[in-house]
Amino acid sequence: MDRRTVWAILIMMVIAIAPALLIKRSPPGAANAPHTTAGDSAGRVDSLAPAPAPAGPAAAADSARPAAAPTPAEPTASAAAEDTVAVTSPLYVYGVSTLGARLVSAELLRYASMAPGEKGRQAQILPPGGDLLGLTLVAGRDTVSFDRVPFTASATRLAVSGPTPLRLSATRGGVGVELTYTFHPDDYRVDVAGRLSGVGPNGGQLLVGLGPTLANTEANIDENHRDLALVTRGNDVDRNDLAKLDPAEPATLSGPFQWAALKSKYFVTGLLAGDTVGGISGATATALPDPAGKKPTAARIRVSLPVSPAGDFRYTVYAGPLQYDRLARQGHNFDDVNPYGYPGLRTLIRLFAVPVRWLLVWMHEHLLLSYGVVLIVFGLLVRVLLWPLNQKAMRANMRMQEVQPLMKDIQERHKENPQRMQQEMFKLYKEHGVNPLGGCWPMLLPMPILFALFFVFQNAIELRGTSFLWIPDLSRPDPLYIIPLAMGISMFVLTKVGQVGMEPNPQMKTMLYLMPVMMTGMFLFFPSGLNLYYTVSNIASIPQQWMLARERQRRTARVIVDVKTDRPPDSAAGGRRKRG
Predict the structure, then answer these.
(1) Are residues 412 and 375 in the same domain?
(2) Cα–Cα distances in Å, from 300 out to 125, 206, 212, 296, 337?
(3) What residues make up the domain containing 456?
(4) In 10 A of CB 544, how many CB atoms?
(5) Structural domains in the chain (count)
(6) Is residue 266 part of a domain?
(7) Is 24 part of any domain?
(8) CA max distance for the chain
């Protein structure tokens, strides 16, 4: 591998991976708060990870709403007791509050919480004081908020074994609302159908709450909160990180949108527009100041849906994991809520990341292999598939090395005439069958796979909490640093073997030691699964490097013999000889 190849690889890795190390945010300052979840009966109180202060009063007009006429004071919690309807399925335990018909808890039974102090608990993705599905009607200059209005529920608890409806109804300010939440046992989807009475002849806008945040469920709170974002999809996907919102200036997003969602690293709550409402007309997000003065981790988010004079509306809510297959089954390209890579690179990375993720999951589910073994098999498979390309690339480098003396001679003879030098160089390449780029591009083909794997391991919930040997979680760094050190050693051996038979070069000697050290330092903080794949890939490449090094030695010896006997050396193109 010559210097140009090495520097091309370094530059590509810095561009694609360095932002993940450089873009850091300080830990959130919110203190741990008690968290209410829907349990087997009315509910229980658990101590969960940091949660922001509840959103402001529900009657406060949103910054994007028309000026509203005064409305009667809302009932308070003391005026009407709040009950929580526990909705239980094999996948989740949702809690629906009778105060505002809001979804106030979402405990995911197949995912453990990794937040500090929550070992052994299921992941609870909704914080206390949330307003997910809280409703506000804006009709003309009138605003009617149902956020804290007591609803009458058709059940006090539900066991979901098939599509199961929960009906809720309430009246406020002359406007009545009837809701039907339909839960499914095998999906995190909730179908919502409703009717508003007294909307008026001009219809209105229904504002649906989607905030204020998602509870922390991860050991690395900082990393999890860094991924908090409001994502919308119209013609394109638009992401607004909560940390970048300005509390003094609400973000107003104009639709129409197919969906709007609030995501963390591994979980999401999203609202998908039903076919009958004509899409989501817009959304607003107002950051809530952090008590400790840190960057925002919560926002007052409202999604706007048009309501006809008849008052009918329909939409779907998803509250669950960022599991690619499930997201795709929701329709409306909802799987785009978790795009791979950074802006500008997502299209390219997605071409590799989606198939790679599919293959890893397929091997795990159909071959019954643990994900650690899957990564080892995958690393070997990639090396086998790329063997011919690597062979071609390395032999092209050999041919370039063989004509190096002739190239230097041309450069010396025509250093005063660059145009003539270029012509002679092309002539030399043609005579000897050398392609100056032939040794570079095959070597760079594995790089998109490496980048894709980086983002797959950073975001694939299938790998979250998956252990292998001494590694407790393949999606997180190796706590003992064994795999990254093994990766660095394997890279050193691979590079050392690859330099066998080459003319001594101080720069190559520097790279022999610099590259493994630099890569080891970088990979110390990368997911251990990525380190495992890269280590296996390096080790699997050593036999090929050794075979080609031996071939290089034989070719070099033949060239030396030809020079000593004053014979023109064989051209790498085969059969042709350099003109004397």
Answers:
(1) yes
(2) 17, 15, 5, 11, 19
(3) 362-564
(4) 18
(5) 2
(6) yes
(7) no
(8) 106
